[in-house]
UniProtKB/TrEMBL annotation:
Residues 82-181 form the TonB-dependent receptor plug domain. InterPro entries: Beta-barrel_TonB, Plug_dom, TonB-dep_rcpt-like, TonB_sidphr_rcpt. Its main location: membrane. It comes from Marinobacter salexigens. It is a multi-pass membrane protein. PANTHER family: FERRICHROME IRON RECEPTOR-RELATED, HYDROXAMATE SIDEROPHORE RECEPTOR FHUE. This is TonB-dependent siderophore receptor. Residues 280-695 form the TonB-dependent receptor-like beta-barrel domain. It holds the Pfam family Plug. Belongs to the TonB-dependent receptor family. Transmembrane segments: none annotated. Keywords: Cell outer membrane, Membrane, Receptor, TonB box, Transmembrane, Transmembrane beta strand, Transport.
Length: 727
């Protein structure tokens, strides 16, 4: 049987032959890695002739197999090796996603070094890095908003890999959060026919099915297509909680000529969830550690959403190695929810108050990007420049109603579960007593010009400089009061970095990056506040081993966040001032990739230290209390390639973190959870896998909130089995 790692080796051979036939050496990123014109390992050479840049067409991780991938596009616009990127970047490959049986991006975040997930229902969680939430995600470099409240956290079946950058990165997208960039790289149509079907079945009512078909659609292969359909039902160990998601993905790649390709993509996601908002605390503000199945909500709780993404990209390769691309993504999302949850801590009679919320959200997003990149020879080394322009506009309509004291003063758990149905939004619109109603329209628009230059004055040193000139406008309209505010500004965003090679396998790096985050809070004159400013300084060492199959990083960083909205210490003040300031610093260690043809590894440790230099709001500053100081995440799998155990795959890992708390004073101890996997490849077509989660049935909370809600219990021991057939 041909293992995934054998397929990877065969692919490398095809890439090398292709480069040799063209009579050109392939370069990428900062021009360090060169594919030699032989079967020798990839090395870093002293002199290079630039004739082409086929490395921009980096292979998919499903082609190469394993966890080892040495390049990414996140934060660079064109592919660069992880070692050559002077920031912290992780890449989670298709095999790593499948081995851990991950379906949504927040599930992936719980297992990825450096990321922290404030759990809710899968597909509705908040994902953080370095203390800040990822409020956007990109598809092939094109951003759109992401938030837990709207359920816009994406599912993963349509994607080949997930690229994650930590820390501010405003060069290609200025108006975003400080946490960094998440880029999802689509599965693409293939030159040859391939297909698989898969079914999943597990404890806690887990089940799912998937179909993935790709290949040429005409005789000469100039038109290629792919279709992915997936249905997933997540574990529901909490009473009445339910979570169903459906995904459809279709793509076409059309060769308009030898050097020009048009790519088209469509993605649809829908969610149907009986919302679980977590548990209250006891009357002393302590976590309950009672039954993990207790559902502190009404049985009619519901969340429905539907999202569509249309993507088009036109790519042309110019003579001399230049690559130009024009790409656009349009997204529309609809979400409505209506649910009741705990409105207080449990009292001495084990009763609590009830709160409820209902909302209707409509969102549209458009992003367009045009860029040109080219390697060039200078100082007897390969250098590179990227220039481009992009535009994005986000429009969000949000009608929301809320109420406290629903169903009387206090109720028992059973009475809460069986609460009479209430349409909270309709009651709020009707002006019912005790209900609050809001109707807002917000928009963000940004246009920018960017440029990045990588110079190699000597072969072992890369100097990187970039800048962005950006114009943004943010508008906020309160349709209830009729008030509207807007703010626009022009910003210049610098970027700088360097990478210094020493020896064959290691590089020292340092970088400075910046980003802005527009705010919707208003000052005493009713005007929107100036944007928050984020600056990050980072340095470290990176290693690349086994021809890029295994990558390692040790990094340290310091991040400043200024102009955060704060309420002044004045009695009766109902406005904000931009004075909040945070300092976040820490260190990360990460190793990921393939140690051998059969052994894969993802391992990382994160240390985070936060300091409120000048307080903003209790809620915003309180987010940092939820970030554990220490996190450790490890996952590894080994596949037996020969002998009596040929075809057997074994995997396992641990997710551990130190204690954390909330601004409400709810504290949770640290925990460690162990997962495991066993798989077997019966032949080249048929394989089976069993994932065991929380093997030792550890009781823990993975998130805490107020005394009334958002104290989320970790899932108990559970298992899910999958059977896959490849055609």
């Amino acid at each position: 049987m041909e293992t995934k790692h054998n397929q990877m080796i065969m692919l490398r051979g095809r890439r090398l032959s292709m480069a040799a036939a063209g009579g050109a050496l392939v370069v990428m990123g900062m021009g360090q890695n060169v594919l030699a014109q032989s079967s020798d390992p990839v090395v870093r050479l002293d002199a290079i002739t630039v004739e082409g840049n086929r490395y921009y067409e980096m292979p998919s991780s499903e082609e190469t197999g394993g966890y080892g991938i040495d390049s990414a596009t996140v934060g660079t616009k064109t592919p660069a090796t992880l070692r050559d990127n002077p920031q912290s970047v992780s890449v989670v490959t298709r095999d790593a996603i499948d081995d851990q049986s991950l379906v949504t991006l927040d599930q992936l975040g719980r297992h990825t070094p450096g990321m922290r997930v404030l759990s809710n229902d899968n597909g509705r969680s908040s994902i953080y890095a370095r203390g800040y939430e990822y409020d956007e995600y990109s598809i092939d470099g094109l951003p759109a908003p992401m938030s837990s409240i709207s359920g816009s956290v994406p599912s993963l079946p349509a994607y080949d890999r997930v690229e994650i950058m930590r820390g501010p990165s405003g060069l290609f997208n200025n108006t975003s959060e400080m946490g960094g960039v998440v880029n999802l790289v689509r599965k693409r149509p293939t030159d040859e026919f391939q297909a698989h079907v898969q079914g999943n079945l597990g404890t806690e009512y887990q089940r799912g099915a998937q179909l993935d078909v790709a290949g040429p659609m005409n005789e000469d292969g100039s038109i290629r297509g792919r279709v992915v359909a997936d249905h997933s039902e997540h574990a529901r160990f909490v009473d009445y909680n339910d979570n169903k998601q459906d995904d459809i993905y279709a793509a076409l790649d059309i060769d308009l000529g030898e050097s020009t390709t048009l790519g088209l993509g469509f993605l649809h996601n829908s969610k149907d969830i009986v919302v679980n908002n977590g548990q209250p605390t006891d009357s002393d503000g302590k976590l309950l550690y009672g039954s993990r199945s207790d559902f502190y909500g009404a049985r009619w709780n519901n969340f429905d959403s539907s999202s569509n993404d249309w993507i088009a990209e036109l790519t042309h390769s110019f003579a001399g190695g230049g690559v130009g691309q024009l790409a656009a993504r349009y997204s529309d999302r609809e979400a409505d929810y209506n649910y009741a949850f705990g409105g207080s801590a449990l009292d001495s009679n084990q009763e609590l108050a009830v709160a409820a919320i209902g909302s209707d959200i409509d969102q549209e997003a458009l992003s367009v990007d045009a860029s040109y990149s080219k390697p060039f020879e200078l100082f007897d080394n390969v250098n590179e420049f990227v220039i481009g322009t992009n535009f994005k506009r986000y429009d969000t309509d949000n009608k929301s109603g809320s109420v406290r004291g629903l169903g009387g003063s206090t109720v028992t758990l059973d009475e809460l579960n069986n609460l009479s149905f209430v349409d909270v939004l309709d009651e709020a619109i009707a002006g019912m007593s005790g209900y609050r109603y809001s109707d807002t329209k917000s928009s963000l628009e940004e246009t920018g010009l960017y440029a990045k230059l990588t110079l190699r004055p000597i072969q072992s040193l890369a100097l990187i400089a970039g800048s962005r000139a950006s114009r943004y406008k943010v508008e906020e309209t309160n349709r209830v009061s009729g008030e509207s505010q807007d703010r626009s500004d022009t910003a210049f965003i610098p970027y700088a970095g360097l990478v210094l090679d020493f020896g064959r396998d290691h590089s020292l790096y340092a970088s400075y990056s910046q980003v802005l985050k527009p705010q919707t809070s208003t000052n005493a004159d009713g005007e929107l506040l100036e944007a928050r400013e984020g600056d990050q300084y980072e340095f470290g060492i990176k290693g690349s081993y086994f021809d890029g199959d295994l990558n390692a990083r040790a990094s340290a960083f310091r991040l400043y966040d200024e102009n955060r909205a704060a309420t002044p210490d004045i009695p009766g003040a109902n406005y904000s001032v931009a004075v909040g300031k945070m300092r976040i610093q820490g260190a990360e260690l990460e190793v990921s990739g393939s140690l051998t043809e059969n052994w894969d590894l993802i391992a990382g440790y994160t240390y985070l230290d936060t300091e409120v230099e000048q307080a903003s709001t209790t809620r915003d500053d309180g987010i940092f209390l939820l970030m554990p100081r220490n996190q450790l995440k490890v996952w590894s799998q080994y596949g037996f390639g020969y002998g009596l155990l040929h075809g057997l795959r074994l995997g396992g890992g641990v997710t551990a973190m130190s204690s954390f708390s909330s601004s409400s004073g709810v504290e949770a101890p640290g925990y460690a959870v162990v997962d495991a996997m066993i798989g077997y490849d019966f032949n080249k077509n048929l394989s089976a896998q069993l994932n065991l989660n929380n093997v030792f049935d550890r009781k823990y909370y993975n998130r805490v909130g107020g005394v009334n809600t958002f104290n989320m219990v970790g899932a108990p021991a559970n298992a899910v089995a999958s059977l896959r057939y490849d055609f």
